[in-house]
Amino acid sequence: MLNNLMKTRPVDLETIFHPRSIAVYGASGGFLNAGTRFIMSFQESGFPGPIYAVNPKGSPAENFPTFKTLVDIPGPVDHVYIAVPAGAVIDVVKDCVAKGVHSAIVFSSGFREIGTSEGLAMEKEIAEIARAGGVRLFGPNCMGIYCPSAKLSYRVDFKMMKSPLSFISQSGGVAITGVNTAEDRGVGFEKVVSFGNECDVTSAEMITHLEKDPATEIIMAYIEGSGNPRRLISAMEQAGRKKPVIVLKSGMSEEGNRAVSSHTGALAGSQSAWEAALKQANAINAQSFDEFIDTALTFHRVKRPAGKRLCIISISGGMCVLLTDLAIRMGFEVPTLSRSTMDGLKEFFPGVGTSVKNPIDLAATFFNPGNLNKLFSILDKDDQIDAIVFLISIEFVISIDKRIPGFMDNMAQVFAEEVSKVEKPIMTSVLYSTRDDIRRDFVKPLVDHKQVVYPTVDRALSSLNHMMRYYNTRDQRHDKGH
Fold first, then answer.
1. Partners of 248 in the beta sheet?
2. pTM, two decimal places
3. Same domain, 196 and 81
4. Any bridge partners for residue 220, and if so which?
5. Domain tally for the chain?
6. Considering just the CA atoms, what is the radius of gyration of the chain in Å?
């Protein structure tokens, strides 16, 4: 039968990210049904094409046109979400082939990841049917595609914000948390794919596509394991010659490796082998989820520094000392500012207890918003420094706001406006606080002005280090003709 259904598979994955019509197989009833949630998400995201519900009983899904099979749908269907029990997926994939579907997301679980011969056999069979019938499969055991430019979203809570970041994730949960975390910090995505067990479309294939995608400037990848790690690393290395590839690799410990096997059925591999391979590929190896997101946002919104010389600014002398130690420990320099810079700063910041040598302890002079323009204008001209790190402890701002209502809002707005004018790379850290609701209010104007705000200076400098290592290595290899 398969020989009679042999079809040409679409070469360019881009057509999959921009389907003309969608059907959800397994949608019925209300929001508690997974298929219905998908179909409602597509509608609320503004997907412009036809959306159909499909289930064998023909039970209606909300107010969507509902059919018993894909073949019953009168018009063409490009893309299908499959949300049925694992045992029914084989017949659904055959229906996709018969309908001439381009691509399908297998949300259903119960395949290789459960560790049984039956699960593995079913996964191989659906891949073979799809491959013979010209259907590209994502999954099984995945959430699928989020593409704001196509108004395609599998979640109702995604904000549909666009940016040049693209993100592939073996885990649906990591993809969801990653999107929400980045969007909360003011950054959206070009493409996001939760790809699960990768029985057909692989992580290597997606990275190769994103390398060539003009709308993608930064590639993020959460990887648990791979059936062909050499091909994956080769794809990362090739892509890394043009754009940064930021990797969060899980399953590095023995216990994590075991968890990976039960999650997506992937072989995680040894920690040392992966670390060496990622280094060879010049892929950024993030050590935590926070570092993964921080680094992506830094590549997107922080200018590349010319060197590692930092100017550190705080409201507290003690914090200035701590941050100087931290910067040196992380491989940065904290040089003395030029004589003209120090003279200029002393003219405007003569307050007792204020140091203007570097680090700069602004003390009470920080609380005059008019000083910020002068401060940044002077520092921007200093050729002794390559980047600025500004630490704000929100409790100092709160204490003034209690006596001068409205101070914090005005300070936040002025600070955001002045920071956005700085030519040198600037990294702002507003420390976590017990009053984090107020901290978030203070940070919002900075986020609105397209600034990355870090909750600790450690996280800011770690992501800056990743950026500088990537570009320096890429430049060196380019010079050597690699």
1. 222, 286
2. 0.92
3. no
4. 167, 246
5. 3
6. 26
